[in-house]
Amino acid sequence: MMIVSPGLFKHPSRCFRSYSIVGVGLLGTFTYCHKYKINRVSFSSFIPSYYHCRATLSTMMEEVKPEFDSDKAAVLVNELRKTFNSGKTKSYEWRISQLESISKMIDEKEKEIVEALRKDLSKPELEAFLSEILMARSSCKLALKELKQWMMPQKVETSLATYPSSAEIVAEPLGVVLVISTWNFPFSLSLDPVIGAIAAGNAVVLKPSEIASATSSLLSRLVGEYMDKSAIIVVEGAVAETSALLEQKWDKIFFTGGARVGRIVMAAAAKNLTPVTLELGGKCPAVVDSNVNLQVTSRRIVAGKWVCNNGQACISVDYIITTKELAPKLIATLVSVVEEIFGKDLMESKERSRIINSFHFKRLVNLLEEDKVSNKIVFGGQREESQLQIAPTILLDVPEDSMIMQEEIFGPLLPIITVERLEDSFAMINRKPKPLAAYLFSDDEQIKRKFVQNIYAGGMAINDTILQVTVPTLPFGGVGESGMGSYHGKFSFDAFSHKKAVLYRSFAGDSPTRYPPYTPGKKKQIKALLSGKLLNIMLALLGFYKD
């Protein structure tokens, strides 16, 4: 039971939240709408927008039990486990058919995908195509091309101690896996791990982010239309639905999001000893040397900051470190490039995504308005809450203990910190938790080597930003606070596979040396084996030594 507090109904959308969950599977298709009952009158989020009530209320409010609870989640997982145990998902043919269905879905529904991304984030069409559609399509095509090779057992050498023998590593699917996605790239970051899970032969539940509601709804519908309903399911919803899913036993949980929720996911997984991949984030630095091409450097930083979802990316440049001497020139060039790309009137540009919602808008404004930060703005700073837009903003020498330098920014704000010597930046970066990405712009080979050797990060790019994630032969993942595990390309397949070690032996070559009793003669043979004397080893294994 809960008491409705005074003034609760000033805005109906804040009084009643409607969460939906659509699932497809052996249980059929089901839809859930979270409602509350007040005095036996059923309300939902479909209350007319003109309804306002500012009166003090003392009505008792009874919450109806959600339709998708832990019990329903358990049934869903059990049905998926039956599918997996049947062996259906393990075959090459099934995996290929599902990957082909994803590829077909992306090709046929491209316009709908772009429209959903526009609704959620106002993503420009070209950005939506490059960062979401093309990324997912490329991952799918690579899996289709390489799957047979990925599935083949890997032959490995054996030791003389097992002669004669052969050995191999067999990649086998983990089982029933859960993928919890995020809102900033809601299409590609949902499908990319799912592609890896399917390629590896698993049954999958995808939980997209409710914050990107249009894309979440679209994924639910499209997966239901194109994919195998008995093995691949989308569950929509918010905290209650995610909590219900996390209470279940999974064979792997793959989570993309922030560190706070990542800890919750890991704690839930630990109860069942479930392995996890956590794709988190952090404060990704970009160090700029004085010997660089400033125009190219600035364009690549702008691309990795404001062009890339308006800074709402886990690998976005979070802050820059450069020398005091170079800083004014770098700022001037960055401003020039920003205005060249987005125009003089930054708030009118249609080439940037918007902030995802008012919560994150206010969070970013709070970072800007902190007393020790507000006077450090050297460019930008304009904002419009009704449009959820903040102009590209550059700040100079904000204090290291300010909020903007302590937490991941995840938005269009870019602090620049100056140092006397470029090498001083290394200690500054390493004082913070290990980031998901680190960037260096320099023509100095010695500086490059020192940066790679001494900076701890999930990944790096030298003289560019963000493009490292487009290389399928490179693993993408964090370290420490920025996450654990990796994926992309074959690494996605590996993330959802168990590498099973298999040794094959015949009944020939059975040496008595290995069996007790260990007589002095056998001890000599064992010593010869351990000493590496090839002839004695071979004779011992073949049983030619006598007591």
TrEMBL record:
Domain of life: Eukaryota
Signal peptide: none
GO molecular function: aldehyde dehydrogenase (NAD+) activity
Entry's Gene Ontology cellular component terms: cytoplasm
Family membership: Belongs to the aldehyde dehydrogenase family.
InterPro entries: Ald_DH/histidinol_DH, Ald_DH_C, Ald_DH_N, Aldehyde_DH_dom, Aldehyde_DH_NAD(P)
Organism: Gossypium darwinii (Darwin's cotton)
GO biological process: aldehyde metabolic process; response to abscisic acid; response to water deprivation
Keyword Zinc-finger: no
Catalysed reactions, as listed in the record: an aldehyde + NAD(+) + H2O = a carboxylate + NADH + 2 H(+)
Active site positions: 279, 314
SUPFAM superfamilies named among the record's database cross-references: ALDH-like
Database matches in Pfam families: Aldedh
Alphabetized UniProt keyword annotations: NAD, Oxidoreductase
Protein name: Aldehyde dehydrogenase
Residues in Aldehyde dehydrogenase domain copies: 69-502
